[in-house]
């Protein structure tokens, strides 16, 4: 005879730590409206500020945006910011990108590559998204949303995470990748957990 109290499997439940709720984005200056405040910029070998409000390449919203690449020189442009991922949360990164198709004149296509990474607290980088020069967005911004991997970023304690956007390019490239409206949302983890029903009878869900 089956035991009086048995476990019935319940699926599709969103669970987290007790008394916890989903967190909102803590990305500072997410639309670059305050210039490079809260963001680190690195460009090499050329100089300048990837984060700007130049009207030559419009922002998605407001006037500020990050303009990575498009220098006509072999090099690298990078912006980064550190955020704190709360305990028992699944971090989800969203941003808007514009990447017009690059034409390099007589030399054909210029090379450029956008690489988006999240670096865990232990210093290990994880690639979240990349795209090459021919993946254009037809002159408009498109949203990209990526979930950071559980194995590295879902923890029982808060974790400091570095988010970076980097473009590498050659001298034939004349068009930048444009980044705007960056956000990090923290969601509950979806967990399948048995539910104990006192006095119940073991049976499959839906049976």
Provide a descriptive summary of the structure in words:
The N terminus is likely disordered. The protein has 207 residues and is mainly beta. The protein is elongated and about 70 Å long. It starts with 5 loop residues before the first strand and ends in a 10-residue tail after the last strand.
Describe what is shown at a glance:
The protein is an all-beta fold.
Please give the structural blueprint.
Layout: E1 6-15, E2 40-44, E3 51-52, E4 65-69, E5 75-85, E6 90-98, E7 112-119, E8 125-132, E9 142-147, H1 150-153, E10 159-169, E11 176-187, E12 189-197
Antiparallel strand pairs: 1-12, 2-5, 3-4, 4-11, 5-10, 6-9, 6-11, 7-8, 7-10
Shape descriptor: elongated
What is the straight-line distance between the termini?
19 Å
What is the total tally of β strands? 12
Which stretches are poorly predicted, pLDDT < 50 over at least 5 residues? Answer: 1-21
Order of helices and strands: EEEEEEEEEHEEE
Radius of gyration: 22 Å
Features:
single chain, 207 residues, mainly beta, 1 helix, elongated
């Amino acid at each position: 005879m089956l035991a009086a109290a048995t476990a019935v499997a319940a699926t599709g439940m969103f669970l987290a730590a007790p008394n916890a709720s989903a967190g909102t984005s803590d990305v500072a200056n997410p639309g670059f409206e305050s210039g490079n405040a809260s963001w680190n910029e690195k460009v090499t070998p050329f100089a300048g500020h990837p984060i700007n409000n130049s009207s030559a390449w419009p922002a998605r919203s407001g006037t500020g945006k990050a303009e990575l690449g498009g220098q006509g020189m072999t090099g690298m442009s990078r912006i980064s910011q550190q955020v704190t991922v709360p305990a028992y949360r699944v971090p989800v990164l969203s941003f808007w990108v514009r990447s017009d198709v690059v034409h390099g004149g007589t030399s054909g296509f210029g090379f450029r590559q956008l690489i988006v990474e999240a670096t865990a607290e232990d210093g290990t980088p994880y690639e979240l998204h990349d795209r090459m020069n021919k993946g254009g967005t037809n002159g408009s911004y498109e949203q990209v949303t990526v979930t950071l991997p559980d194995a590295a970023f879902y923890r029982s304690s808060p974790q400091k995470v570095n988010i970076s956007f980097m473009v590498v390019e050659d001298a034939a490239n004349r068009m930048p990748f444009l980044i705007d409206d960056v956000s990090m949302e923290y969601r509950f983890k979806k967990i399948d957990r048995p539910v104990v029903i006192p006095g119940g009878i073991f049976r499959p869900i839906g049976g």
